[in-house]
UniProtKB/TrEMBL annotation:
Keyword annotations: FAD, Flavoprotein, Oxidoreductase
All residue ranges annotated as the FAD-binding PCMH-type domain in the record: 7-183
Designated name of the protein: FAD-binding PCMH-type domain-containing protein
Organism: Domibacillus aminovorans
Domain of life: Bacteria
Keyword Repeat in record: no
Amino acid sequence: MTTEKENSSLASSVIWTPTTIQEALAKKKEFGADACFISGGTLLQLQWENGNKVPKHLISLQLIQKMQGIEVERDHDCKVLSIGALSTLATCQNHSLVTMERKLLSEAVKHIAAPAVRNQATIGGNIAGRSGDVIPALLVMDAEVSLCNKVSSLKKSVWSWLKDKEDQQDDLLTQVHLPINEQERNMHYFYKKIGRREAFTAAIVTVAGSMSLNELGELDHVRLAVGGGDNLPHRLEATERLFKGEKLSTVTWKEVYSSILKEFLPTTDAFLSADYRKKVAAHIIISELQELVFPSLK
């Protein structure tokens, strides 16, 4: 049952606490642009403190059971690690299924914010804001999200969702799905977040990558993703194509470096230039890929 109460800290807002996805969507339909979904609330709180308008209605998702929990499911012939959008970042970092089946997610999450924030912030909130530091890791794992709105429910890749320019403010992100590759032993991953201070500030740049080799020793699956701070996360698809069919020993690293500089279009702010961010991202990606090729370099 949906209840209503005044928010003591945000006196002008009303908090609604639906217990089902359908109730949450009904409230969003009722109040439209005057309402927003909220779970952990850490990102929204920061935005409000920076002067963004506080909605008249806050639709809390914390009581919706179908948006909680982590489990391995089967999707046709594939295993999938499904994570409820309300799972906290701390849960994603420490849950046994995540550390066993999708360790890169655990590695990425431990570099996001401070422990107290990870105990409250949710993976759904980190993704829904479209700039979360977990997104590059999800992109290189070919993650999908389940979305519900007043018209339909659907599942789509995180990359497709990010590229979709249509208004999605009424969509409710309910689950995250990570395919479990049966050939995982042949996959290699990396994730790096560079900030002005350890984990307690916005990232200068966040990068992630994955790669695998076929039986001929050729690269047949490469994913590279960048993001961090105000830079919208995205895949470096043109750079990825440079690796297709190449053997590790024949990769032209100068060409890869130049492609990253061309494809990554970060922002400039009061602290750092876009050019600096480009070079940081390119150096990290090259270094991590070469470590996979030549482990003795480190």
